[in-house]
DNA sequence: CATGAATGAGCTTTCATTCAT
DNA sequence: TATGAATGAAAGCTCATTCAT
């Protein structure tokens, strides 16, 4: 019950990680494994080694916890996309890089991805709206790359850029359904294949 | 537990539809709207205009109900795919036809699709396995088309057929996330675009 | 667990009273003894010898239960007042009768009264409003008696009738604070005294 | 646990009021508005602009806080009653003055009154007993006035003095139920009417 | 066939209080 | 003096399922 820790106040028990992060990590894993509704607050706090009171000290609700998981993932993904899109390279290379990167990072964080594409509707309406707005920003950035290539004539204009983006992201979302770490392909190989399919589909 | 009733189970209140179908329809709609976990048995029976006893007379459990929803969709989709694949036409046309058709029928039954790609993990392990097995059959049939084209040299062999199939179905699953009936594109137009993207990606 | 009772379906366990009434009685007693907030649903169902599920089968919420208690009391009191007010007698006698009767019945049902004057603000806003409306009807009826006497000149008009009514009912509400069954006065004696004070105050 | 601070506990943030008083004021308002049980310690400290630790530094418990509220009100009321009762005037005037004054001060401090007549049972048994004892002193003083008048023959002896006192205080308690500052009567007018009713009822 | 009363376990959330700093 | 993280118990409520009729 008592804690002997000195200096750093946010360090607990037998673990060096701050409580909020421990909770977030436990929640992420459990939400991904069992889904939001099937995961009880009790399970989360047990996995994090704290009590319910502690969880509600840091997070306003179970819903809040889910939102935090989202916020973290969104931020990371947006940063990576921006880096690729802003690079100094031909648009084909930038699009290919971004398209492949989102596959690799999605596979590297399949838990986050599962939650993303399965649990968004569990958020409260306002939080849902907020996440959708950020998601939209991401989509727009990706679409701008496609449109840039179409304007420059290096990509076919046969398909609206919006649809192209949804086509690719559909396959990204789908990864959590079929990808298995012990399968025949490494994340990078999958990423290269999917990026290749996208670029081939965009050939003029 | 028992299912099939004798002659004509016209046990309906103000409606001409048999009770089991009414329950199935209500469950499909509610599962799609709110998700499996968020939908209570009470809501289902109220929407169907019957009582809980009636539901448990026809279905062994809530889980059973979800399984029935799946079974119906799976059967329909498999039938349609088989029809396209067995047609007497060049493989490009057959694949294009099947790829476009699954988009149109998915859009026409977005409720079913939502359930499919969101609620599968809510099934009991054995039912889940069963559904995955049938799902696999569907996947195999589609893959066979791709491989046939690859062997004949009309499709590129740059990408493993399995990946191609998952690429396309990712976008199909994704439809329920972004497609809106009041959007700028008709289901057929979306279908043509997505099939076109697939076929373009497969160009040698 | 099993119940061997035959015929009457609403009869349970070792007691002949229907479950909803048992719950209502238990809730009434506990709310009066401990207050609404201090009484847990668990205590109520234990006192009634049923489970929580049963309570929520019959009542939508704890708040609902309180409202039912109110509804019963309000109905009874209104009926009694109407009977006295409609009697064929001089207005002094009718007022005295009603004023004394409400004292006696309040003492006879001190539990109900305690709840009434202590827990009304625990009702949801809409239910609160509803109770206040019915309460108002009661007040009006009583005031009409006072005004009738004032018009006829048998009561003083020095004090507005509204205030007179509140004066008397204040003392009625107050009963649950000080009246003890083992005190020196019988309910009827208290009632006669209080009615007498009212009538004396109204002497022209 | 400890209470009195040394010199001047001007420990205030943007406000010149000492912390304990700020807490007491916040608690008084919130208890009156929402009731004791519905008011959380968190709400109180937020309203007072301090933290929980501060509250528990000055008060041993939430219950303590309620008790302090009571103590303050009791002291004030007793002082006022004593002043009226000890005045040099005929007993009718002294009783009328006291009876009217308690009405005015009750209306002027409706929050305190609400708490008084609603939350007394929330005190711990020992504190409850203590408050009742002080309350009793108040009652006795008031009764003594009535009895003095009865002995002198200026008040009717038809009703036991105890009952008379409870009759009047019932109406005082009741004020918080019906009195509205924006109503047709000023506090003084209400007080005069209620004192008048009392005196009229006591006419021999 | 169908009812609906009843169960019992589980849910999220709230809260007064403690205590190391 | 004062903080605020953390506790642990309890709260109101929901729900899939059973079963006598």
TrEMBL record, chains A, B, C, D:
GO MF entry, a single one: DNA-binding transcription factor activity
Coiled-coil region list: none
Highest taxon of the lineage: Bacteria
Pfam families referenced in this protein's UniProt entry, alphabetically: TetR_C_24, TetR_N
GO terms classed as biological process: negative regulation of DNA-templated transcription
DNA-binding region in chain numbering: 40-59
Keyword list, A-Z: DNA-binding, Repressor, Transcription, Transcription regulation
Protein name per its UniProtKB record: TetR family transcriptional regulator
């Amino acid at each position: 019950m008592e804690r002997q820790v000195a200096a750093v106040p946010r360090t607990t028990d037998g673990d060096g990680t701050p409580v909020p992060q421990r909770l977030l990590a436990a929640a992420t894993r459990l939400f991904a494994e069992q889904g939001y509704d099937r995961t009880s607050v009790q399970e989360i706090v047990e996995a994090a080694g704290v009590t319910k009171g502690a969880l509600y000290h840091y997070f306003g609700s179970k819903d809040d916890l889910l939102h935090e998981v989202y916020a973290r993932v969104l931020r990371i993904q947006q940063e990576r996309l921006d880096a690729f899109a802003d690079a100094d390279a031909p648009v084909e290379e930038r699009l290919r890089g971004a398209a492949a990167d989102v596959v690799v990072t999605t596979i590297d964080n399949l838990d986050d991805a599962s939650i993303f594409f399965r649990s968004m509707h569990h958020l409260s309406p306002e939080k849902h709206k907020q996440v959708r707005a950020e998601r939209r920003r991401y989509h727009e950035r990706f679409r701008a790359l496609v449109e840039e290539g179409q304007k420059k004539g290096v990509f076919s204009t046969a398909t609206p850029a919006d649809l192209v983006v949804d086509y690719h992201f559909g396959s990204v979302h789908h990864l959590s359904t079929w990808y298995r770490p012990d399968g025949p392909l490494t994340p990078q190989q999958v990423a290269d294949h999917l990026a290749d399919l996208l670029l081939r589909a965009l050939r003029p």
